[in-house]
Amino acid sequence: MAAALPKNSAEEPQVHPAAVDYVARVKALAPRLAAHAQEIDERRELPKEIIDRMVDEGFFRLLLPKSLGGAELLPAQYVPIIEAFAEVDASTAWCLNQNSGCSMTAAYLSEEVAKEMFGGPRGILAWGPGPGEARVVAGGYNVTAQWAFASGSHHASWLGCHVPVIEANGQPRMEGDGTPAVRTLFFPKSKTKFTDIWHTMGLRGTGSDQYEVKDLFVPEDHSLPSIARNTPEKRREKGLTYSFSSLSMYAAGFAGVATGCARATIASFIELARDKIPRGARVTMRNNHVIQSQVAQAKVRIDSAWGHLIRSLEDITEAVRQRGHITMDERMAIRLNSTYCIQTAMDVIDILYQAAGATAIFNENPFERPWRDVHSVSQQIQGRQAHFETVGAYLMGLPADTSWL
Asked: DSSP letters along 145-181, please?
């Protein structure tokens, strides 16, 4: 039987993680998270108090298998939790989505290794891209590499890397199609050296720093072919959640980060418009017809983009449940709808940020941080407009890059 979600009080009845109202838990945590928001931005990491609460509430176990005491949530159950966090602090939401996507690896590892990495409440995995290699040795690999963009690494217990494999004879290992074989390897965070590089415009609290190892031995069973992590038929766990690739879950979750920023901006703008009389005006902003129209359009654009994403996730999940596997059409739909959410959220925030006037540029007002954060989301691989090209080519029957599906 799967372990119950850790509780703050021993007297509370045990509830299976999948039955928990996690959005309600986010709302309960929101006041404390909001109180730490400035600190998160300045220190460029999540405070221990917030991490401890998130661990206790089971937030880092949302996509872990039930066999490990995880919630094993389905996409449409999971993504609103990320959005709810982002309405309060985008960096926290980004870290949670990144760590959760990484945790889906548990479905592909052996049961023994999965328990070693994720069996405890603080089994948190992070990784990022970068150059390096894994040289084949007896029993595993010697890894030398340097990576960056390791979101959530400050509070992680395990780190991973994706590197090409070099055979013992010094030759690159090749896949059947002639491409280099890339392997994902896992090792304790204590084995790595970190360098503070995360000085950015937005998403500062993610602490997405650089880390490196040199000639680190990683056992064979602590690694996987990188392609396998996003090939659902290769999984050990057969739950419906793992019919989806981690790339699809990343895409939808990061869309939630962007729409959460937009919802926070809309709420802040409505509050500002109630009392602010712009220079040269005679009435408050909320009595301006242009402002009224902008607020209404902002809301319907976010609600429409978000609603379409969630409905598509629900429909796709039901289709996968009946069929037994996800199709390329459905993976393309998730990527398209997620990218559209991110781009729409950025557009909405830009409009309201400009409408707020000089008020928006001051750090103490609640406009500049969501603006910085959503623009940082849009700059990441998950938000780039090139995804529209990928889906458009596919819809028109042309060869399409499926690397990020």
From this structure: EEEEEETTTTS-SEEEEEEEEE-TTSPBPB-TTSSBP
* Cα distance between residue 148 and residue 353, in whole Å: 31
**Cα–Cα distance for residue pair 360/279, rounded to 1 Å:** 15
Q: Name beta bridge partners: 35.
A: none
Shortest CA distance to 162 belongs to which of 196, 141, 186?
A: 186
Domain 17-118, architecture per CATH: Orthogonal Bundle (1.10)
Q: Contact, 74 vs 252, CB < 8 A?
A: no
Q: Tell me: domain 244-395, CATH 1.20.140.10, correct?
A: yes
- Retrieve residue 197's tokens: 């590089």
* 225-281: pLDDT as tens digits: 988 777 877 889 999 999 999 999 999 999 999 999 999 999 999 999 999 998 888
Domain extents in the chain: 17-118, 125-225, 244-395
The yes/no answer on whether domain 125-225 falls in CATH 2.40.110.10 is yes
Pairing verdict, β 209-219 and 158-166: unpaired
The Cα 206–Cα 263 span in angstroms is 20
Gap between the Cα atoms of 332 and 387, Å rounded: 9
166 phi, psi to nearest 5 deg: -110, 125
Residue 43 pLDDT exceeds 70: yes
Residues for the chain: how many in total?
A: 405
Query: Residue 37's Cα: distance from chain center in Å?
Result: 18
Judge whether 334 and 295 are in contact, CB under 8 Å: no
pLDDT of residue 120: 87
Residues 169/225, Cβ–Cβ less than 8 Å: no
The pTM of this model reads: 0.93
Tokens of 254: 């990061």
